[in-house]
Amino acid sequence: MFPTLNEQLDHIKRGTAEIIPEEELAQKIEKSIRGNIPLRVKLGCDPSRPDLHLGHSVVLRKLRQFQDLGHTAILIVGDFTGMIGDPSGRNKARPSMTLEETRRNGETYFKQASKILSQENLQIVHNSDWLGKMTFEDVIKLASRYTVARMLERDDFEKRFRAQEPISVHEFLYPLAQAMDSVAIKADIELGGTDQKFNLLVGRDIQREFGLEPQVTLTMPILVGTDGVEKMSKSLGNYIAITDPPEEMYGKTLSIPDKLIYDYFLLATNVPEAELSGIKKELEYGEVNPRDLKRRLAREIVSLYHSREAAEQAEENFDRVFIRKEVPDEIQEVVLPDDGGNYNVFQLLVKIGAAKSNGEARRLVTQGGVMIDGTKVSDPNTATDPDTSFVLKVGKRKFYKIRR
Fold first, then answer.
1. Which CATH superfamily, name and number, covers 5-220?
2. Is 16 exposed, middle or buried (0-12, 13-18, 19+ CB in 10 A)?
3. pTM of the full predicted structure?
4. What is the pLDDT of residues 346-370, one digit of tens each?
5. Residue 150 pLDDT
6. Which of 99, 272, 275, 311 is buried most, with the most CB atoms less than 10 Å from its CB?
7. How far apart are CA 25 and CA 218, in angstroms?
8. What sections of 119-237 are H helices per DSSP?
């Protein structure tokens, strides 16, 4: 038994950027209810980024909502399209990958996505199963169904074309290959970020060319990272990974700018709609201390990926370390070799893996990010006592108990 049309639309519209076209979505849902047949909801996963963060969770959580409404989630591993490299939102071509690399990354993606998706009404497929079987004749026929003019309507292609930057012909094949995924699985709905809008609409056109009822496209907003400026990205260091430990996840959430609080509640939590309205009003009229809302937000996010108990413990640990200035109960212990050798602070940071290089270690110290037993170290060449154990703090949240 499916929920009513209005109930489903209320859930689906939450946090959604755009539904194209919305009236077709309503028609598909009504048909699904009448025939008691679940809709086939497609999401393609990019195997070039196997490590998932809250930015990825936005569209994965929307897919889970469709599952909870009784529909079938179809997760497509782009192992074949990963060899092309999706240029969406980029001003240059993305490096291609081997089939082995995309398969390996896809496995990592699934393990992490399982924290969000239900396993009951989920299908996992690889697009190499059908794209890899296409002949060159098939590719020519597919390419004949779309024009260069239409391809250049895509923002990133248009910008590169105007800037006289190279666009390889194989990049034009990416949206066509993604569209063939929709043909192969007979998708009713395809999900993606707003930067995927062009590709999703190509899917509608190509399905129509193959005599299928075109899919409805549903785009989700791009989540801004903890810096409050750029799209959440691991390479930019402004991310909250869904596999982060509770304490780290909690602390990173508290670091977001106040202007992002409502968006994170909307896109990254299950807080009910009625409460969301209250949170928005409180923020707009200054009726609440943003810090208190961020503490609740952090608890909600940690609870989703760990547990309510873990969230409460993470908050207690945060308060102990950053408010009461105490050392956490459990910290990593590092035993140095008892060889009589001594280490300067920057050498010690590299030795224990707290910094990847001497240069990074020196920067950590000079920027005030290193403390020994609660005292800030300002000189990277400061010697450490080989006969004394001490607590080393690196950055905001990393603690090490150092001893021989």
1. HUPs (3.40.50.620)
2. middle
3. 0.78
4. 888 888 788 888 888 888 888 888 8
5. 87
6. 311
7. 9
8. 128-131, 136-143, 148-151, 155-162, 169-185, 197-209
